[in-house]
Amino acid sequence: MDKRTVYMDYNATTPLRAEVKEAMKADLDVYANASSMHELGRLARARVEEARADVASIIGAGSDDVIFTSGGSESNNTVFATMFHRGRRGGRTGVVTTKIEHPCVLNAARWLEDEGFPVRFLDVDNTGRVDMDQLARALGPDTLLVSVMAANNEIGTIQDMEAIGALAKKAGAYFHTDATQAVGKIPVDVDRWQADYLTLSCHKLYGPKGVGGLFIRKGAPIEPLIRGGHQEHGHRAGTYNNPGILGFGLAARLAKSELDDYEAKTRALRNRLRDGLLSAIPKIRINGHPDFVLPNTLNVSFPGAEGEAILLYMDLAGIEVSTGSACASGSLDPSHVLLATGLGPELAHGSIRFSLGRDSTEDDVDYVLGHLPGIIARLRAMSTVDA
Amino acid sequence: MTSAFSWLYSDVVKDHFTNPRNVFSPDEDFKADAEGMTGNVKCGDQMLFMLKVEDDVIKDVRWKTYGCASAIASTSMLSDVIKGMTIRDAYNIKPEDIATRLGGLPDNKIHCSVLGDKALRAAIDNYLEKTGRAGAFRNEGAKIVCTCLNISDRDIEEAVKQGARDWEGLQERTKIGTVCGGCRKEAEELLHDYVHIFGD
Lengths: 387, 200
What we know:
The structure holds two protein chains of two kinds.
Chain A: E1 6-7, H1 18-27, H2 39-57, E2 66-69, H3 72-88, E3 94-98, H4 103-114, E4 119-122, H5 132-138, E5 143-147, H6 161-170, E6 174-178, E7 197-201, E8 212-216, H7 242-257, H8 259-280, E9 285-287, E10 297-301, H9 307-316, E11 319-320, E12 322-323, H10 336-340, H11 345-349, E13 351-355, H12 362-381
Parallel strand pairs in A: 1-11, 3-4, 3-5, 5-6, 6-7
Antiparallel strand pairs in A: 2-8, 7-8, 9-10, 10-13, 12-13
Chain B: H1 2-6, H2 11-18, E1 34-40, E2 45-54, E3 57-66, H3 69-81, H4 87-91, H5 95-101, H6 110-130, E4 144-146, E5 151-152, H7 153-161, H8 167-174, H9 184-198
Antiparallel strand pairs in B: 1-2, 2-3, 4-5
């Protein structure tokens, strides 16, 4: 088989799509400061507001309720910083989140914990879904914030957002969701989920890096993480990143209009990959939820083979994926998400995440199916551990 | 492609990773005189060394690993280097020597090269034991403190003699407790004792 490059790491980031790239290039000439009162400034600002409407639309929000940030990490941190200030002024202080959040939520929650806020990290079941009974018991009159990611980046498991939102609101808490991986892959609706805050990222949507968004429901408190000028109603200072914001708007508009096609296409390819791996490689394990899972995501454990070695053999064959192995993370522990689902350390070390995208093809899937069985067989043959 | 890969690993590492030398194959008839295993699958790597020894010289070697690219490459290199060596010389090979021959390893990967070296020492210890010389290259009664990486109280003593004065310094020299961390309390007590004896 001829060597080629097969990118299957779309949950890490996506390529900039051609239409977005062209629109951004044109926008680079719109140099005026979008906060300026003159005509050029007003023109630049109009483009920002048009993009805002497109971004708000993909999550079912009004355009007044979305601010632009530098990305998902900033959006998430803005919410936690807001809760810090809120809690400091008295009243509720409890924070409820999960063990499988993205590190920026986990570390923001740990920061609040260090500051004396009671923080509860909920367990998930073996498919990665939040334990709803445990959530209900964790909520109380002191609960300030519930923060649960809509879909997990590693295993793709989708939470029951409507039920979680309903419980959070019933307890009188603010409800935040990190929807970075969900937006553009599955329907997202801030009203159905009763979200007070929702985090978006642009570069997962075939838009540029360095741009994100935060939905803030009217009436929910918001404290700027970056203080300065009056941009974003004073919620986030800094000169508008015009080309990035314009790219985000267009990427969101296209993603919304193509959502059905995207879901159908990636699901078919993902299932082809999953079924092909199951029939070609013995004793593998599919991680995550069988049904409540992002259509593009497949997380697989290969007993007897270590994930970083698998990843680098695949890399040499031109296949780009991710692993939950500690060896690839710079830390000594394997994926916190897989461990939280109860997977043993060996299966977590031997896990590979395939995430497909709008540019993926059947040829890509077949190329992986042509190479991976040999790689696994080879690593298993030299392994001290039986598969 | 070469430069993209060497961003992570050297060409020598890549060569040993893609064409590992002396890997044990279940199809062959390799009668080992001694075996040593170290590491823990829980920690993400485990290593087995098998030796054929004649007159205290290593005649042939096989190994197996559950481990990452660095573990595979460094063990492959180590297995090549020790052929024809006396068991005493092989016992004293330092992981840094292997890392150097590999053209260097990323900092966070040194741990992986330590594992091959420890497994080799375990195999040689096994040989010494079988030939009635248990612990000949190591003080009698050396006690394994860090079971993940097979690090003994003698290793901690040696590290202190070389300048380790605190937990970080000890970890820098030995990688102790970098896997499960369960040995930290016992290791810190020993560290305290040795610093008291050898400290300045």
